[in-house]
Amino acid sequence: MEECGVCFKVGRSVMIECEDCLGGFHLKCLKPPLKEVPEGDWVCGFCQAQKLGKDVEFPKPPEGKKRVRTLREKLLASDLWAARIESLWKEVDGSYWFRGHWYMIPEETASGRQPHNLRRELYRTNDFADIEEGECANSDEDWNSCKEADSDTDEDMEHEEENTRNAQARPSTTHQLAANSKKGRFFGLQKIGTKKIPEHVRCHKTELERAKATLLLATMPKCLPCRNKEMEEITTFIKGAICDDQCLGRCLYIHGVPGTGKTMSVLAVMRNIKAEVDAGSIRPYCFVEVNGLKLASPESIYRVIYEALTGHRVSWKKALQLLNERFSDGKKIGKENDRPCILLIDELDLLVTRNQSVLYNILDWPTKPYSKLIVIGIANTMDLPEKLLPRISSRMGIQRLCFGPYNYQQLQEIVSSRLKGIDAFEKQAVEFASRKVAAISGDARRALEICRRAAEIADYHNKNQISTVNSSTGK
Length: 475
What we know:
By secondary structure, the chain is of the alpha/beta class.
């Protein structure tokens, strides 16, 4: 059982776990204290302050007491290894063996941790043959004399180092000890020794492998360069709509060629605003994101919106009726009815039907006095409002935001920000790719994919050369 992050005691009191840092806290130790565990996700005050960029001073353990690392911290430091034991047996020479699959955390994959990864998510390796057997303790005394490995006291650390030195001194008749024998210890079933892990499971990535991982389109960048002005306009629009006392509802149409950061900019703004909501500086709101490409039909958007607001699934006709009651008449349909609702519709042009009723209903709701609905539409078509019926284009409003194509300097900055700290590309190579893409489309996704593919080809040739040299020396 882990210690409380404030009082550093275990006890039997009820504890709550933070969804961000996975740290445990007693309900009575929090400020203000909690009487019961709240529903849904909960984030501690330390993580909330860190999101806002504040200096956080974590509680220090009492004098003479050493802080015990959590299991997650041990996993990240490679001091704890997880495995699924398939079988365990004892050989004739007295050594114990196990057969199992090793687990690894998302940080150790080629793409790293992604936004969709759960905090407690683990991956089980698929290659069973290479990790089939492990080396264990050499006697029954070693097997039964091991203590629990969850503590990080000085005595336990000395015990681990002594066992490591003894294991290195003993000759092994079956399997060579791992080179990093101080790490990679297996703590699932007591301390059963060390094992060399296949290089493709856990290894130090080369510069090209790191470049391939960070240039993936699925990788969320830490910052979004070259769109500060547009993000400020989106922030001003949303805050102006949320902070308005009446919150009558507004519409914003964002357009631009593909790959110019429209959707990513809006989502980055929403993350920043959510951090301010958690801090209490902005009133709470509901956020619903819909992508037109994921809808089976334009009418399905009613069902998706209603399910996001209430958690219940109904037909799209029933959802349309209930949403009309909610936004037009002000009838409550959920617990968070009084909160403003921000509706983000990506690929808005895919909702155009023959009579254009879907777009009309959605854009008509913000005009109602009780709607409290803010609609943000994103599409690649610049003149979409002019192609719609006058009753729809008038409700879309005059607030528009254009995302122009990137020039080569901006593309170069985007790629360089991804490759910061990675010495895999020369500056001239990044500039050459940026100029080529800027001359054709200005699509940042194409520039990232070109550089990623170049790193992939270079890494493939390097590995082929190494394998060729190794085979020739072996002969």
